[in-house]
Structures are given as C-alpha cells and as structure tokens.
Amino acid sequence: MELNEKNPTPDSKYGEARKFDPTFKGPIHNRGCTDVFCCILFILAILGYFAVGILAWSQGDPRKVIYPTDSRGQFCGQAGTPLEKKPLLFYFNILKCASPLTLLEFQCPTTQLCVESCPTKHMTLVNAYLNKGEQEYYKQFCKEGVDFSKMSAPEILKHGLCPSMLMSSKPFTRRCLPALSTMKGGVVVVGNETSFDNGKGGKVNATDFLDASKKSNVVVEARQVAMRIFEDYTVSWYWILIGLVIAMVVSLIFIVLLRYLAGIMIWVMIVMVILVIGYGIFHCAMEYRSLKGEPGSDVTIRDLGLQTDFSVYLQIRQTWLAFMIILSIVEVVVILLLVFLRKRVLIAIALIKEASRAVGHVMSSLFYPLLTFALLALVIAYWAITAVFLSTSNEQVYKVFNTTECEYSRDTCNPEMFNTTNISAQCPGAECLFAFYGGETYYHKYLIVFQFYNVFLFFWCANFVTALGQVTLAGAFASYYWAFKKPDDIPASPICSSLGRALRYHTGSLAFGSLILSLVQVIRVLLEYLDQKLKAAQNRFAKFLLSCLKCCFWCLEKFIKFLNRNAYIMVAIYGKSFCTSARDAFFLLMRNIIRVAVLDKVTDFLLFLGKLLIVGIVGICSFFFFSGRIKAVEQTAPSLNYYWVPILTVVVGSYLIAHGFFSVYAMCVDTLFLCFLEDLERNDGTAERPYFMSQNLLTILKKSNEDQAKTVD
C-alpha cells in the first residue's frame, strides 16, 4: 500500500483521531506536574541509594581487591602497615594448591606469608638447619619468632613454623609461583631440575608443581591474558584516542553533510556499506586461500580449544571461512532489504532530510549526548564504587583447612586460640587459615539485599538519564515541527526550554517509565544468573522453560523500550502523565500501522547503515595500522601482544560515538514521525487547517496546502 491514502477512518478500538485545535502551536507550555507519586518514590529511592553508598563506604575496604592476603587476612605490601615492604605472597606447600579444595574455597589449604622477595633457589629445611650460613635466608620464609637454636627441625615442621623446602620461584600477580619452564621434548623443569627433595625424605617431580601452580590461582590464565591486554593498552592508548577522535570527526562530517546533501549521502552510504562489507569478504577469502597448505592451518577451532593467545586462531583456515560466511550473509541481507524496500527508501530519505533541517536549526542537540554520556558515566561510576565497597565490607573469616578427612574441616575457627583446642590433635596437619570475608552482624546478613538494591538503582538511574535525554530532544524537535514559519517561529533555546520542562513537570513520568523498564531488566539479569547456575544440570525441561522465559522477557524489554520512547515524545508535546501518553502514542501508531511499518523502520535501517559505515571505515583503517599492514607506518605502530585489543576498542568506541550522534537523528526522526501522523489527523491542507509538514513531504504524499496550491496556480 502506498502512502498517499487518505486519512483512515478512526477506529474506536484504537481511540479517536486527533481533532483540529486552532490554539495548538506545538509543545504546551501551560502544564502541570505529572506522576507525582513516582517522583516522590524516585527521590526517596535516590536518598536510600546515597545511604547505602555511605554505609558501604564506611564498612568496605577496596584494599581486599588490590592486595593479596596472608593466612591471617593481613594485606601484603599495603602502605602504612608492618607488611608494607613485603608485597609478595609465599605458599608454604604449593602442592596443596592442587587440591580440589582450592576450587571450592578459593584458598590454598597451606600457610601463606607475606615476603619481600620470592625464593631463588631450591633448599630444604634440614639442609638450612645444618648449614648456619643459610638459616637467615631460610627464616625470611618462616613465621615470626622461629629460633633454629632452640628448636629442632622436626619440631619446627610439627608446629608449621617453616616450609619443608624452598624452590626457585617468580612473582606473578603478587604471588610466588614455581619458575616453571619447558625443555625440548616437553619436559617440565624448575630451575633446570626435574625432581626435588621435599625435605621429608621423598622426591617431588616438577610436573606436580605445574598442576599446583595452575590451581593456586583459579583465574591465573585469565589474569595472564588481562595483564597482556593491559600492557597493550599502556603502549597503544594514545593511538586508540586518535582513532576515537577520527571517528568523532568522521561522524561530525557525516552529520554536516546530511544537513545539506541528505539524499546523495544516503545513497553514497548505502553503496559504501555494500563495498566495505564486500571488501571484508574479499579479504577473508584471500586470507583463507593464502593459508592453504600451511602446516597446522587445517586444524578446526573445536580441536584448538580455548587459547590465551588469540592470534593463533588467525592462523587456521576455518576462522577466516567463518568470517567470510558471516559477512556474506550480512551482505545478502542488506542487498535484499534494499531491493524490496527501494520505493520506501525515497520516502525515508525525505524524512531524514526533514530531520537534517531540524538538527540544523537546533544545532545544540548534537552536543546534548555529551550531557547524557556524562550523567551515565556518573551513574556507572557510583554503582561500580559502591559495588566494590559492598563486596569488600565483610570481616575476616577463618576456617579449618586439612587435606585429609576430618569432622572439623572447613569449620570456622579463631587463629589466636587454635593451638589451644583439640582440633589439631584430632585432625593431624590441620591449620586455621583465613578463608574469605563474611560476617554475622545485621549488616552482613542483609548485604545481599544492599547489593541487589545497588544493581536495581543502577538500572533505574541509567534508564532515567536516557529517558531525560529522549524527552528533552523530543520537546526541542517538536517545537521545530509545529513552527509554521520555519525558522522564525522556532522558540529560542529549544533544548534548554525542553530540559527545564522535563525536570520541572515530568520527573515523575520519567521515573515511572524507567522503573517499568528497570524491573524487566532486573528480571532478565536474574534469569541469566539462573541460566549460569543450571548449565551443569541435566533437566532439559528446566533449561527449555528458562530459555522461553529469557526470550519472552527479551521481547518484553524491546517492546517497553519502543513504547517508552514514543510515550516520552507525547509527554514532551502534551505534558500528560506517562500512562496517558503511552496510550495515546500506542493508539496513534496503531491507527497508522502501515506508515509505521514503511517509514519508521526503513529510516532506522538507513541510520543503522550510517553507523555501520563509520565503524567499518575506522575499523578497517585501525586494522591495517595496528597489524602493521601499512608499510609507511609499520615502524610507528606499537608492538603488541594482541593487535586485536586496540582494534576492538576503536571499533566499539567508534560505534558508541556514531550511536551518540545518530541517536539525535533517530530521536528527531521518531519525533517528527509522530508529529507528522498528528499533523495528518489534525489538518487537511485547507486555509483554516494547513499542514505543518515540509513541502517535500507534502509532494511525496501527494498533498498540498490550499495557499501554496493557489500560489503555484
């Protein structure tokens, strides 16, 4: 169906069409406060959020995240403490870290001390005891107060005052781990030795230390990758900033060109997107072809498994084949959509041209996303800091650790009184070690409630900031549309006026809409948490039900976002409550469902192609630069562990920057679209009821105002 049909007959199912109102000249200025109860509730919730933050900051201790802790829960290397000059954590018997208990308790069942440096040579306690020259060196890895002259070696071992042996170690993530290496043939060694005297008359193989080293820190591999990524950021951060600045400049140029050359730019954008994706397909095909016959290139991704060095995946053909297939599918989908929607693209271009004029007359709207970004950054920072303090506000909890079966295993204990109890007698080798942080006070009992409240308020505040931006932009662009003589009738400072109206009258409506969306998002987070917990379960019905719920709530979130967006536009124009505005917007869209399907979605698709083009241009340039493919700047490019780290950062950052600029366009298009539908229902083009839309839209819709028609005649 074409878009030149007459106004549809009002359907009582979706309410009555808007009637002509000679006094309506755009966003209503004489309005009252809406959804006052939600406004009060939101203010109380914010005050409660501040109270939770203050409570968390008074109880929390972020040092627990930064510094490793010894067996007494003391921080290694913390400034202003007796352990300030002992930044490294040393394990008495790292072989015990290979126990499954490590994975359950995230703590090795062995004594841990803070030391100045890691041991650099293999030595047993017996050897050190017999060699007085080595005793001082050995004592730095023992508990305080050890006197070799007053105690025998067996007594020292019995009381757990010293480790039975030392081995060559290296600091990693502030922990002393065996200096493992691999010789030719895959033989694991520590300091060129394959086996060691354990100080108790036995031998220990170097391979035993390998498993213990891996399990001594459950996330050791992840931290290793994180360290490499951090190193890449330290040497490439300024190039990343340059890439993001380039993305911002390209986005600004694109927006400015849209203002004057919207039609040409849209077609250029369409062609460029097709060419960029096409080049991606060509590049993947060439890489796939070049790897033919290379040793190891035919290994599958499944056989390769998870590797910390992600560049390995680029050395196998299957990776490039997968990239090529994905890009080919995207290319075909884009081309098919353009073919079937070719007639609708012209109408969408006209709407984008109108949006370009609106943005041109309200240029301050381009900089409003900076305010939204700053507010969102503030919300995220407050949430993150509060989360860290909440997670570190527990007290030290000590438990009994023992490698053998014992009735007291993992029971809480007091390290000061442990030696006076009968636990050590009933459980040989048992130790009272720091296990984790917890507590028995009311604060600690309800800590999970505070953490949930922190997450919920984060969603609510973030959605409120987004809603505030949408209402502000909608009010400004509605002022443009309903100005009959543009730009003379456009009010001064439309962005500031709209922002003032939103905060003064509609804080409650914004809080109401964002509250509904936040509830759905929190439910989705809980469903994702349950999904992670049930991954190991074999109940297929439970997994199926959970998948259905996740799908339903995902769809519900998308629908609520769509409804909220249009409701906020109606709030900005008419100043009514959220529910009334949501109903009016929904009925207006349903009365014009054909136009919604044709215009709104095609326009969104074209704007998405614009973002895709900017990301593609910046992404390809960053790929050639950071991978050293450009010979002219090969020496300038930084040396990286993973060259995809800055590339991915630039790509994601470019998309966010492009999205920030194009979100203004998207909000402008949505606002003008609703105003356009209202215009068609309110007016008929006569001298008494002229259309407010531009001449281009009138021509495309085959409509005209009588005054303009007479002028043409």
From TrEMBL:
Name the UniProt record assigns to this protein: Choline transporter-like protein
Subcellular location: Cell membrane; Mitochondrion outer membrane
Keyword Transferase in record: no
Transmembrane segments: 34-57, 237-258, 264-282, 320-341, 366-390, 455-483, 503-527, 605-627, 647-677
Membrane topology (UniProt): Multi-pass membrane protein
Keywords: Antiport, Cell membrane, Glycoprotein, Membrane, Mitochondrion, Mitochondrion outer membrane, Phosphoprotein, Transmembrane, Transmembrane helix, Transport
Entry function: Choline transporter.
InterPro entries: Choline_transptr-like
UniProt source species: Hucho hucho
Entry GO CC: mitochondrial outer membrane; plasma membrane
Family classification: Belongs to the CTL (choline transporter-like) family.
One function term, GO molecular function aspect: antiporter activity
Catalytic activity, as annotated: ethanolamine(out) + n H(+)(in) = ethanolamine(in) + n H(+)(out); choline(out) + n H(+)(in) = choline(in) + n H(+)(out)
Domain of life: Eukaryota
The keyword Phosphoprotein belongs to this UniProt entry's keyword annotation: yes
